[in-house]
Amino acid sequence: MDSYADVSFWLETAGDLTPRPPLDGTAECDVAVLGAGYTGLWTAYYLLKREPGLRIVIAEGEIAGFGASGRNGAWCAPDLNISMERLARLHGEDAARRIQQATYDAVDEVGRVAAAEGIDAGFQKGGELIVARGRHHVPAIEGAFREYERFGFGEYYRLLDAAGVAEKVRIAGAVAGLWSGSAAIIHPGRLVRGLATLVERMGARIVERTPVTDVRAAVSGAAAGGGARRAAAGGATGAVGGAPAALITPRGEIRAAVVVLAGEAYLVRLARLHRQLVPMYSLIVLTEPIDDARWAEIGWAGREVVASARLSIDYLSRTADGRILFGGRGAPYRLGSPIKDAYDRHDPTHEMLRGFVRTWFPMLADVRFTHAWGGPLGMPRDWHPSFAFDPRSGIASARGYVGHGVSTANIAGRTLADLITGERTPLTELPLVNHQSPNWEVEPLRWLGIRYTQGAMARLDRRSEATGRPPTGRSLAERIASH
């Protein structure tokens, strides 16, 4: 890529983007990490906090923060994309509650570390507002509140009427809302770039413009037993015996006792994980800075992160310099799960998002838009995140955030550090650990199913808006996409 500042507004405003030197020949270390995004950097951070002597090498195909960590909607919010109801059916109600509590804790942990380590991440805990833009959205809002109450988290939330929503932000057509104080807004680019600088200062090495093309598992117990702790004592190729695990790149191998696969959607480029995820593109538009007079009309002084109950997903945030970010789905899935820079822009979807801004905020009918970008997020077949470590192969991984990655990646980093160092903690007891999602269907069945569901969900949204009737939840598309 010619200019990394063109990737997103967040990278453009994150400071120096000069690439770090790439890998030059074979490297040996204790822990090798694929991906210098939130997951890889948090994992390195927590490992080095526990074992300061660890030799960690992080391989990044472009620059730190190039992926979703530098492109997202600025939400640092609780919840996973898979519901507590679904988690309870799979793992029991107690496990569902523990997983949910971990997401609230993760938001605070991101803010704590940013403050403690001097990272200017723009962390502001202004809360989250889910809006019903019409009566057809009200059942979804009320249903979400009942689910939180049932699992013991009702105190975190408050149902709002139209006036209550307007007290926070004035949105055309808003008739109700669900508010929580548990979410924060961040500057994604500064958080990820700050984490990269931090882990380097702690002793990690980041090699950029070094794409990983394959992964090799350890042979004959090279990674068996105490993971990173044993590696620190014996070295990646020393006392443990056998051949170490490795990241394979065009510039050489990175050999280590433990390899961490932290590429999220980009993991589909590895043959062994190609059908574990599909790269779903989420796109964003950004307005020019809005003048004080129009902000007085809109409100939004608390800078809550905002979304509606649309099936097709939307998300909004207010930047520190007074812009409105509006993101959503709509870009079509491509046959074979490719990831290409060209897919970061999809004119019909970006134009749809600009229209939404003007519809939600009629006072911005003539607003200018200065930025448009997008990128892939990783979607497993069952919507279920997974954090895994196999001591026999030496391979650890985290994936499947489905758009909830800012806080979930922090949970992933702490969990992987626990697993790799052999610590038994409340995080390692969560059923997110070593969960195995089913593979996606082979093509073209995968393409047919996803494209059908994308189109059908958009049609259901349009029908509800036109008729005022909520989706039934019984349509084929809703059942396919239920989570």
Structure characterization notes:
The protein is of the alpha/beta class. The protein folds into 2 domains: 4-72 and 189-276 and 384-421, FAD/NAD(P)-binding domain, CATH 3.50.50; 128-180 and 278-379 and 444-480, D-Amino Acid Oxidase, subunit A, domain 2 (D-Amino Acid Oxidase, Chain A, domain 2), CATH 3.30.9.10. Helix content is 33%, strand content 20%. It is built from 13 helices and 18 strands. The strands form 4 sheets. Strands 1, 2, 8, 9, 10, 11, 17 and 18 form an 8-stranded mixed β-sheet that branches. It has a 4-stranded mixed β-sheet with strand order 5-6-4-13. Strand 1 (27-34), helix 2 (38-50) and strand 2 (56-59) form a beta-alpha-beta unit.
Layout of strands and helices, then pairs:
Layout: H1 9-12, E1 27-34, H2 38-50, E2 56-59, E3 75-76, H3 84-91, H4 93-116, E4 128-132, H5 138-150, E5 157-161, H6 162-168, E6 176-180, E7 184-185, H7 188-201, E8 205-207, E9 214-216, H8 227-234, E10 245-249, E11 252-261, E12 278-287, H9 292-298, E13 305-308, E14 314-318, E15 324-328, H10 347-360, E16 369-379, E17 386-390, E18 395-399, H11 405-421, H12 445-467, H13 476-480
Helix pairs in contact: 2-7, 2-11, 3-4, 4-11
Mean pLDDT: 94
Distance between the termini: 36 Å
Q: Helix content range of the residues, please? A: 25-40%
Strand content: 15-25%
Reported by name, the CATH topology of the largest domain is: FAD/NAD(P)-binding domain
Q: Looking at the structure, what is the overall shape?
A: globular
Indicate the CATH class of the largest domain. Alpha Beta
Q: Measured on Cα atoms, how large is the radius of gyration?
A: 22 Å
Count of helices?
13
Please, how many domains? 2
